[in-house]
């Protein structure tokens, strides 16, 4: 059981053991897709985004981790995952995808007192992060790298 | 979202007997999810294709365990997986309350091009949150003959809801029974596993109408 209070605690209370006991504090640089000119909308958990609706097939998709934020362990993993999903998108346009997911990758300098991390997917470097109540992730940004160049192509 | 050119359905006939097995692809929510009809044992994939401010759109299609096994071993692409098995698929729009709307039956060849999986996209294990469960489930299914999983899907079919005859071949067996052969053939390899027969018990009142229509395509 975690002793500190989390952001969105009222929702986390609806789930048993949320965030999971295995989630741990860490100090490390992390990487997140963000909107370069709109940090306010860059750190909203999936479960709190009203439009478009969550992709859900049944109630089990409304998960505890949906109140956390997706981060990556390296810039390269964040970019690779973005490209992978961008290229696989089906009905929605590339513009819609970018408007939904972001147009830049932020480097976040995280410390132990910011929150807890879930298990790392070693295949793609993704993990879920739950913020403590007082954490402001936009203040943790130390670098922003745009994903696309002026012609709309991937920078690298 | 794209306008669909399918046949409107009140609902999927197998909706209430579906049980969720495992997500084949997931990133911040399901992208491709395997279900099983617990009555017929047929497998169905829910494949996310689109969304707007109110709905997420899923294309649903049947698959057989052997083809799914080929997919997760990256021997066939997502496109090949989609095109295998039946020539029809379904579309469902699911809202924030998980209510199903706008169910349609669509001939795969009529599906919007933007909804088709890409031919060069293959399964990646990192996308699957429970690969062990997926492989074990497929292995378990593959031990049964797939023919056992075929349901008499068209058993209650009437003239008004018979499938598009361009895609099915009808072979009369008796006055009120037809064998229906799916003509969805995209490659010789898929052809071998995809041809299947349905016995179609028809309402007698429709026999002459249907026979006439079938004969016109003979």
End-to-end Cα distance of chain B, whole Å, is: 38 Å
The domain count of chain B comes to: 2
- Strand fraction of chain B equals 25-35%
The total number of structural domains of chain A is 1
Helix content of chain A: 10-25%
Helices and strands of chain B, in order, run as: EEEEEHHEEHEEHEH
Shape of chain B: globular
- The largest beta-sheet of chain B arranges its strands as 1-7-6-5-4-3-2
Determine the number of helices of chain A (DSSP H or I, runs of at least 4 residues).
Answer: 3
Ends of chain A: how far apart?
Answer: 42 Å
How do the SSEs of chain A run, as a string of H and E?
HEEHHEEEE
Mean pLDDT of chain A: 92
Helix and strand content put the structural class of chain A at alpha+beta
Which helices and strands occur, and which strands form pairs?
The complex is a heterodimer of chains A (156) and B (218).
Chain A: H1 9-12, E1 28-34, E2 69-72, H2 75-88, H3 94-101, E3 104-110, E4 115-117, E5 126-131, E6 141-146
Antiparallel strand pairs in A: 1-3, 2-5, 3-6, 4-5
Chain B: E1 7-8, E2 18-26, E3 30-37, E4 43-51, E5 56-63, H1 65-72, H2 78-83, E6 88-94, E7 100-107, H3 131-142, E8 168-172, E9 177-182, H4 188-194, E10 197-201, H5 207-217
